[in-house]
Task: structure prediction
Amino acid sequence: MEILLVIIIGLLYAAGIYMMLRRSLVKLIIGLILLGNGANLLIFLLGKIVKGEPPIIADTEKMLGEIYADPVPQALILTAIVISFGLQAFAIILIKRAYKVVKTDDLDEMNATDEDL
Amino acid sequence: MLIAVISGFVFALVIPLIMGRLKSKSTLWAALLPLSIFVFFLSILPEIQDNGHVRISYQWVPSIGVNLDFYLDGLSMLFVLLISGIGTLVFIYTSAYLKGHHFLDRFYAYLSMFMASMLGLVLSDNIYTLFIFWELTSISSFFLIGFNNDSEASRKSALTALAITGIGGLFLLAAMVGLGHVTQLNQISAMSSLSEVIQGNNLYGWILLFLFLAAFTKSAQFPFHFWLPGAMKAPTPVSTYLHSATMVKAGIYLLARFTPVLGNHEWWNGPLIIVGAITMVYAAIHALFRLDLKGILAYSTISALGILVFLIGLGTSAALLAAAVFILVHALYKATLFLVTGIIDHETGTRDVSQLGGLNKVMLPVGIAALLAAISNAGIPPSFGFVGKDLIYAATLGMGDLAWPLTILAIITNVALLFAGFLAGIKPFLGKLPERFQHLHLPGPAMYAPPLILGILCILFGLAPFLLESSLIQPVVAGLTGTEPDFHLQLWHGFNLILLLSVITIGSGTALYFILKPSENLLSKVTAFEGISPESIVRLISSGFATFSSGWTRFFQNGYLRYYLITILSFISLMLAYRLFTGITLYVDTSTMTAVTFYEAVVLIIMAVAILFTVFSKSRLVAVASMGVVGYSFCLIFLFYSAPDLAMTQFSIDTLTVILFVLVLYNLPKYLKLSDTRDRVRDGLLSLAFGTLISILTLEVMNETVSKETSQYYAENAYILGKGKNVVNVILVDFRGFDTMVEITVLAIAAIGVFGLLKLHLRSTEKE
Amino acid sequence: MKTIIFKTASAYLLPLLLLFSVFILLRGHYLPGGGFVGGLMAAIAFVIHSFANGIDKTKNIIKFHPGFLMPVGLLLALTAGSLPLAFGDTFMTGLWMKQSVPVIGSVGTALFFDTGVYLVVIGVTLTIIFTISEGL
Result:
């Protein structure tokens, strides 16, 4: 299973970067999101994945049992997911604003100084 | 003493604020600062005379040995008095010279900043603060030279000066670090006892080389001399203060300061004598052909600096005595001549010596000052210059085998210098007054008093050299040679060889003055050689460097995001690939892995297909939808592998992201095929390579054992300390609560950003 | 999207989802859930409502600009964090009530902190979504 996940991580990175190398602003942001997902999965995987043992203490216990999913990467990823939402929202609005001003989402055409706008 | 140094910096900060408020027309009061510093140091003079030195130390950055160690001995005293004394006169002079100038406050700020750095430089005993103050003088000099920042020549000269002296500063740092390494000390005054240790060290040659480069660049020695004539673009008070009396002497100071530490070695003496001799003769001859008064003075200053380097290179106690006296002599007469030139320029509007004459009739006091300075410059008795020149000849004559060649070089230099002095100090004032200067009148006393005072001092010290002997010159020489001085400064030594040489110098110099008339013709003959002068070579190097760096920058900083990405990624890929395939043997431990179940495999396949759709879809809506599918598959993976919190969060966020995209995308144009197939293949290959590398890297990292200490702690204490059973949530709101606090703040900022970007901006465009 | 079924459903969905989101928030300390997820749920509830009835109606329900939830939430979180300072503990030390409250369990500063997070997340999400749909 881990090997499959590793392949997916590689695929996410490759797809993210490929999209970021495109000229369209929309694709750039999609690429960023894919890349972020890839990174999340990477962190998740490195914390050693465990099946069916969520890091939640049983009603009768006072601490986790012998086997449990690592809570630290989970907390990290949760933070990352929420933060990247903020980032994405901001980026999406930037596209919108940029499109309103320059009437294109081609990055190359945006590559001009302010006077040309 | 610290106050004396710091006050200049504080003054520089404060003065632009108060000068504007003070409406008063006169800015004479600004001179109170250097005057009080001058008086303060004068009051310490007896202490120096008795004890030899005063030492004060303040901690600054003790952890790396950078302390404000101030050490005031004879040599420092000589410079301190020059800096603050001439500073006072320059401050007074400036108040008239730049009267009503728009940026006068700024000028005073730079000037006092320079004065403070210079004081710091000559007082520093710590090798690092020495470097810091050294650089500060370069920087303030840059501002002062470029003061007329609307003139291109000014800006260019300022840059040249900064480049040359700045490079020198770096060499100084190298020399200082070397010295500190060899001696394990930071205090210069403590190093002189280790002189033999340093000279025996392998690094000695390098330290010398770097130190010489620093001193030569600052003191405008051949072949770095060319920035000084350029620096004459600065207003005259600056030329006077920085480029004749004080800053250019910093290099001399440096050499003198390190004479007891590094000197008395053939590697020390030889280069100094050679460079000093070349500079003094080369520049003195150059001075003969100049028309611009400031140009003449600039070259004669370079020549004088050459003499000083030469004398320090000789290294005998007679030579060091001569150097000490000559520093003072030169500062006095050269400052006078510069100030006079400034007055001439200010009043007549020209500095072309061939057009000037007869100004005595309109500004007699200025003429007197100039005459006194020219006499001292020429070394005609009873001036202080005569004393100085005698000492120089005495020093060269005492050099054994080399006595005569060295003396002849000194004579040639002195003859040319005498000529230059007459040209600047006498020529403009004698003869017939041109028609167009008839209406001129004497400027205010704030302008002519400073040169007059200096001019009178030139003669006064000549008539009564005992005024300086025990108080100032003896401590200097004692500090430099380390022995008790036994000499007496005298005007009259009786009839001897030295007197004869003086007479020859004065005679031939005066004769030259009457024979050689400065003209355009002569100037053009010299300028023909400029193609091979060091200045042109440096310009060539610097322009080549500029072309190269702008090409380099344009290649990498081309403004296209994807090329930046490509550069970065290719580099990372290469590094990763190199490391992975050379240093690490790949192996995958399948035994510890979890088995693949049917559901998971299906989810992963869906995910892979969705990724491919996202990338290759022609429609934006499909791309966004497939991205949503990728996100939901993530939820499932998180769910399978015991992360319910993550699954829930991912689900909500994914929903919202898709909604956002859809909301915005309706207004955007359709995907266009923007790149050709070649680009796509190239990008595809690069991203595949990078993705593969990441996969391999992940596999490798998974083999590493992960330290579980942190997780263990949280797992054990979540309920006991945090009273919660959902460990992830306890981490978020309790153990790492502060992080979460910051995170929600960031989120709020993002929302405000979105709000501002859309709402506020729209309103401002509506206004237009 | 403004079908009658959807409209009618959303009228009931909104309070239900909001209640659910509060439930998620409160149980977060013991079971999966918490301020982040709860906040997102609540935001989604409002978004669904706005899709069905138009954004103006949703705004009428909320009555004030959702942006105000951000400072309120931040202040609540900060207060919860700095409350221990008043008792001589360091910043962010968890304080707990002696008796536990039914349904919620034991009440402590962490709960208030999480509620702050909840409010901020609602505020941020709704601000973003509303701003965008108005800007269209």
Remarks:
- The longest strand of chain B covers residues 53-61.
- DSSP finds 30 helices and two strands in chain B.
- The domain at 561-712 of chain B is CATH 1.20.120 (Four Helix Bundle (Hemerythrin (Met), subunit A)).
- Chain B has a mean pLDDT of 81.
